[in-house]
Amino acid sequence: MTSTINPTSTTFDPSTFDPTTVDEARMEELAGRIITDVGATVSAGLVYLGDRLGLYSGLAEGPATPAELAERTGTSVVYVTPWLANQAAGGYVEYDAGSGQYSMTPEQVLAFVIEDGPAFFPGAFQLALAVLRDVPGFEDRFRSGAGFGWHEHDAGLFEGTARFFRPGYVANLVDSWLPALDGVVPALRAGADVADWGCGHGVSTILMAQAFERSRFTGSDYHEASIVAARRKALEAGVQDRVRFEVADADSAPSTQYDLITLFDCLHDMGDPAAAARAARAALRPDGTLMVVEPAAGDHIEDNLNPVGRVFYGASTLVCTPSSLSQPGAAALGAQAGPAVLTGLLRDAGFSRVRIAVQTPVNLVIEAKH
């Protein structure tokens, strides 16, 4: 059964449009971008399948024809054949016309096979597909301004988000971000109390626990299903002796004082980020540190009109803003709030020392102290 799209009528009358105002060169450029985006949208599903079915890891073993890859992975050659062609057209795998074989470069293996590496991308596609499944539910929200809670999303979003952010945390958290904070690494090595608020599946919590065996870690999130997954992952990682996970809101009163509180890519999702910042300050010991990791952004829209900004504005529209609107406060900060807004929010919460500790093309790492 097909559905009919009936857009809300507007004041624009298509009959008044003058086609002679169209610049042909600009039109061709725009059409090319659109075709690229359509191809990328369709290909997201194929990346997901390649990840789930082991097609990338199978091809990483060595060059193969479609029949050979199907044999390696226990899949059907009639599907593998166009899948490989699509991947080659997108530059995700290589094709040799002489031999009829496909292969992967080391860079492609790193991007699509090495899940514990610094540049693994299938999780991003998994996240995108999960969000697209929820799109029909946003038509009414766009009209009403109502929220769409994190817990309301397709379950693939939760796992996809963890897999999307994990490579950046693996590459940077222990070796770069924590060392950039004043006195934090020595405290962690000696033994500190750490709270990771908005921890999701616990990727950041577990990575810190693996690196600092003398410290104690508490991960919390309001989403119970994510906490269940985090507890399982802690057991798998063998850090259950120094990590615990609990269901709690970020602005709830903690029972412990902490040396370090972390907020990884979640402050902007909260209904009342200012209240969360005040709660963090209250929960820190006098010499403690708040670490806020947020998506990289400039302070103005024109600073963010680039591929990274495009990704995060899209996430803001379909995940971050609706999540905030579903909570008390409904601040709708968005994933591209920018350093001026973020640091100002922390100063207003009572932190006297606030600085950008690290800035990368993808992340802002902010340090705040009493």
Automatic annotation (TrEMBL):
Keywords: Methyltransferase, Transferase. It holds the Pfam family Methyltransf_31. GO terms for biological process: methylation. It comes from the Bacteria. Residues 46-108 form the S-adenosylmethionine-dependent methyltransferase Rv2258c-like winged HTH domain. GO terms for molecular function: methyltransferase activity. Residues 190-303 form the Methyltransferase domain. This is Class I SAM-dependent methyltransferase. It comes from Angustibacter luteus. The lineage of its organism: Bacteria, Bacillati, Actinomycetota, Actinomycetes, Kineosporiales.
